[in-house]
Amino acid sequence: MNTFFRKSVCLLFLLICITLSRAQGFYYKTLADELQNLKKQLIPDSRVAILTFDFKDTLQTPAVIKGETDLQDAKAEVLRFLTDKKVAFVDSIRLLPDISLGEKTWALATLSVSNLRTLPDHASELASQVMMGTPLKVLDQHENWFRVQTPEYYIGWMDSGGLQRVTQKELDRWKGSTRCVFNCMSGYVYSTSGKQGEIISDLALGDIFEAEPGNKKFLKIRIPDGRTGYVRKDDCLTFNEWSQINPTDLSVFSVARQMMGFPYLWGGTSSKAVDCSGFVKVVFYSQGIILARDASQQARYGEPVDITNFNNLQPGDLLFFGRSAQRISHVGIYTRKGSFVHASGKVHISSIVPGDSGFVPTRNLVAARRVLKSLGTEGIIRVKDHPWYNIKPQQNQQ
Question: Which residues have a catalytic role annotated?
């Protein structure tokens, strides 16, 4: 075989490899695009569910698909899609909770307010907060951080100092214990049954702890991490009293008024500081109601209200603002006569009526939802119905 012929064969072989590689690359890109579309169908809101995968152009056969999800059905759909496409692949999608967590795939928040961040880093964005005694599903661990899911199914990272991991059996024991809920904006747990004792912990509205009789004025309580102390009895409700509240516009406004002037904090969802949707969430949580975390999520639930006529609005309705009904960026609670209370800079009253002193032209009202007449429906969960708080909830929630 002469040199020219050998060079021609090598060149032809190279061209064939390049052509096949490009064809394969195009094929894998098409598959990747279709997988992304499938992901959007399976997980329309990545704030409340996890589905990631890495499926790149590769010359290896079979291809390896990596990723993670907390939904077994979503993983099954992805694998079924690849099988139907006759793709040879190796399944490396990690199912959460991660097996390394063992039996302790639940947790209880241990601080008056525990921070939830977007990434396992104290410098990461504050996504939300949870109150003491909030049950959490533990999904994953990275060093001293745990990825958790809240009762409204919001997902974020919490450092180990803010939670106590428990097994299902230990969580069930907590569900069946005698619990009380702190019913004031702020307070303390004392080491003795009197204010002369040392402070064990601060408290915020909605904190939950186990309790037993102390004396006429104080309850002896146990925080989920094992700390014990005393709390003023008049500052608490029993868990049953709190979870059975039938909220009205008056009870909602009573709490909202107590928070007037409270500071704005991006990611804040406690009686210490709040963002707009966090303020709404805190107010309704004080009434035993769990709402979705963000304004754009809250806007999906409850009875829609026609906003073309302000007379259609009722006290307690949620008002949503933004560029459009699909681009919501702010929420407040309607009071009366065109006024609403919301957190922006601080908690205060504004108006949706042009010409009023509290009217802000840049606030574009795009939707409204009636929550108080939609209790127990999707996205508006009563605590008494939620299985994470109760051994036998009255209704089934996911």
Answer: 276, 330, 342
In the chain, the domains with their CATH numbers are 18-95 (3.30.1340.30), 100-174 (2.30.30.40), 177-243 (2.30.30.40), 249-385 (3.90.1720.10)
Q: Check residue 213 and give its pLDDT.
A: 78
Tokens representing 354 are 């042009």
Residue 395: is its pLDDT beyond 60? no
Closest CA to 380 of 365, 363, 364, 397: 397
Q: What HEC string does 196-208 produce? A: CCCEEEEEECCCE
**Could you report the per-residue pLDDT of 136-175, keeping only the tens digit for each?**
999 999 999 999 999 999 999 999 999 999 999 999 999 9
CB 190 within 8 Å of CB 197: yes
The answer for residues whose C-beta is within 8 angstroms of residue 279's C-beta and 6 or more apart is 256, 259, 262, 342, 343, 347
With a cut of 70, say whether residue 12 has pLDDT above it: no
Which residues is 53 bridged to in the sheet? 67
Instruction: Summarize the confidence of residues 72-93 as an average pLDDT.
Output: 92
Helices (H), the chain: 3-42, 72-84, 168-175, 239-243, 249-258, 276-285, 295-298
Give 176-234 pLDDT, tens digit per residue: 999 999 999 999 999 998 767 899 999 999 999 999 877 789 999 999 999 999 999 99
Q: Are 68 and 93 in contact (CB under 8 A)?
A: yes
Summary mean pLDDT of the chain: 91
Residue 144, classed as helix, strand or coil, is coil
pLDDT tens digits, 253-263: 999 999 999 99
| Cβ neighbour number for residue 210 with a 10 Å cutoff | 19
Contact 270, 204 (CB under 8 A): yes
Q: Are strands 327-334 and 228-232 parallel, antiparallel or unpaired?
A: unpaired
CA–CA distance, 84 with 250 (Å, rounded to integer): 57
**Distances in Å between the alpha carbon of 75 and those of 39, 65, 113?**
10, 11, 34
